[in-house]
Amino acid sequence: MWWNYSVICLGKTKSILVSIMLVIALLFTSCGKTVSKAPEDNVVIVEVPKYEKIPVTISDDMEFAEYSAIKTGTAYLYKQSERKVILGRFAPVVAINAGHGTDIDLSIKTLSHPDGSPKVTGGTTKEGEVYSYAVSRGMTFPNGVKEAEVTLLLALYLRDELLDMGYDVLMIREDIDTKLDNIARTVIANNYANIHISLHYDSTDTDKGIFYCSTPSSKKYRKMYPVNQTYELNDLLGDTIVAALATQGEKICGQGKLPMDLTQMSYTKIPSIDLELGDRASVHTPDRLKELASHLATAIYCIPLESFPEVK
Ligand SMILES: [Zn+2]
């Protein structure tokens, strides 16, 4: 698996470098492992659970918690019994945020930005609005399936892929109605994860491919706290994920990014992206979502950890 991921991350032209890294990686891996001996006849083998599932909620002392309007829901942190290490560094805890899936009155709104300034681009909420939908309902596919149902199934498949690979995973939403708005989701991710990926499908009908919502060019927006702390890493995270998906044959929309002022990115304190996995014309069968989850897990493995804050 290691070599496979590495080739996808770096591209074929660097395969010689990868081979050298592979040898080094395998040496480290085999050196660090305890070789288990064959059990004696009278020894009882106790299966130790690979990970535990911990419910987590928002609390008032968390930064930006007071800006959230819907925050009674529970997220779940899946914690491995052993931390995953990639080339000598602890792997990030990955927050998977299945977009939408909060059944609420759409009149509930929250501040678009923590400093009360207006939105600098359009989106579900228009440019210039000081208040945005706390969380929107998302689109519906032509066959009647809701975006929130598709993002949830994709998130569950991705969770299982990442857990199998040894990552700790924060699942922001695991059912069809979780009472957490976009600010609450971001606050929980800020406190329990190291990177945050929300999963969405766009409302167009052109099968345009995958992109992420990158940071708008507005200088004022980029200077606003906490955007000024994170936007470069947000975009690096997005560029990395989209490039790794392209290498695995996924269709990419244009340059793979579209500038968008979103609540998630305006409140995040950790590297974070809104990833649009296609649109209303995209195939979203369970088999296709399983394939996409596998490609996403590989893309997450490709994150250049040396460029991100070190995980303690
Ligand atoms: Zn969406």
Write structural notes for this entry.
With 312 residues, this protein is of the alpha/beta class. It has one domain (8-307): Zn-dependent exopeptidases (Aminopeptidase). The protein is 33% helix and 17% strand. The protein has 8 helices and 12 strands. The strands form 3 sheets. The chain has an 8-stranded mixed β-sheet, sandwiched between helices. A two-stranded antiparallel ribbon has the order 3-4. A hairpin with a 2-residue loop joins strand 3 (85-86) and strand 4 (89-90). Mean pLDDT is 89; it is low at 12-37. The protein binds zinc ion. The site of zinc ion has 5 residues, from loops.
C-alpha geometry: globular
Stated plainly, the CATH topology is called: Aminopeptidase
What small ligands are held by the chains?
zinc ion
Mean pLDDT: 89
SSE layout:
Layout: H1 2-10, H2 15-32, E1 51-56, E2 75-80, E3 85-86, E4 89-90, E5 94-98, E6 109-111, E7 131-133, H3 147-165, E8 169-171, H4 182-192, E9 195-200, E10 210-214, H5 219-223, H6 227-247, E11 252-259, H7 263-267, E12 272-276, H8 286-301
Helix pairs in contact: 1-2, 3-8, 6-8
Bound molecules: zinc ion (ZN).
Outline of this structure?
With 312 residues, this protein is an alpha/beta fold.
Features:
Aminopeptidase, eight-stranded mixed beta sheet, 33% helix, globular, 312 residues, alpha/beta, 8 helices
